[in-house]
Write a structure and sequence with these properties.
Pfam families: PYRIN
Number of strands: 0
Radius of gyration: 25 Å
Shape: rod-shaped
Number of helices: 4
Strand content: under 5%
Protein name: Pyrin domain-containing protein
């Protein structure tokens, strides 16, 4: 059974008041993991699950982009360092 279907079964067991409390926790949770109140206001159980998955996908993509940027920065820094070393070697060779 997929995670979404299992979550749907769990949320289907909640009363409306319990669902609202669950959504409140999603809105007021960890800063990075929060879901905007706007997206959950009046949201169905399935819409709530979709927003949870969308948020997780966004967080994963954000982490992937961060890693890619860090790798690119490392490559750029390594290339710049290599160019500096090459230039210094050329200058040293030219002076000799």
């Amino acid at each position: 059974m997929s995670v979404k279907l299992r979550l749907s079964e769990i949320l289907d067991e909640l009363s409306e008041e319990e669902l609202k409390k669950f959504q409140w926790h999603l809105v007021n949770g960890d800063d990075e993991k929060k879901i905007s109140h706007h997206y959950l206001e009046g949201a169905s159980r399935q819409k709530t699950i979709d927003k949870m998955f969308a948020k997780q996908a966004w967080l994963r993509k954000k982490e992937e982009l961060k890693e890619t940027a860090e790798e690119a920065l490392q490559e750029t820094t390594a290339e710049a360092l290599q160019e500096t070393v090459d230039e210094a070697l050329q200058e040293t060779t030219a002076e000799a």
